[in-house]
Amino acid sequence: LDYGLDAEAPLEIPRVDDAETGDQAALPPPGRRLFDALLQQLPDATEAVEDLLQAGASPAGAGLLALALAQLGGAAQATALPLSLLERGADPFGTDAHERTPLHLAAAHAQGELLRNLLTRGCDPNARDCDQRTPLFAALEHGVAALPLVRSLIAHGADPEAADTHGETPLGLA
Fold this sequence. Notes:
Elements: H1 34-39, H2 46-54, H3 64-72, H4 80-87, H5 102-108, H6 112-120, H7 135-140, H8 147-155, H9 170-173
Helix pairs in contact: 5-6, 6-8
């Protein structure tokens, strides 16, 4: 950015051919932005992502917030960066590769402020992941510390009797 790189710059991907087999190397999709590539390098790339956001990069795109949350996990940066992405237009409804919404991931990582922010924006507290689990299942993994998360989810309509693919319910696990 200090050298004139546009915040929305697509990656320049060199074309590489394997001279021995004549096959082309597997390359990422053309036009992919530097911002999108850096999300996959979180939490190590947190500072670079923040710099791109400050320079005007857009966090909009299906599943980018979920990707960032999945990559950050429980890292120290896991609270501030997702809130910043959300405030700048990240999609609060897009899912990750396991069909987990940002709400699932906020509950899984005990991020109460982010969870409440997502609920306020209309995220579905009964959204299902690939195992048919709702964010309430993820919140309950935190034991006694889950109480504020559970309260927020229930207050916004989370169903404690929603069964997953194995027939378990959050109420049964509590």
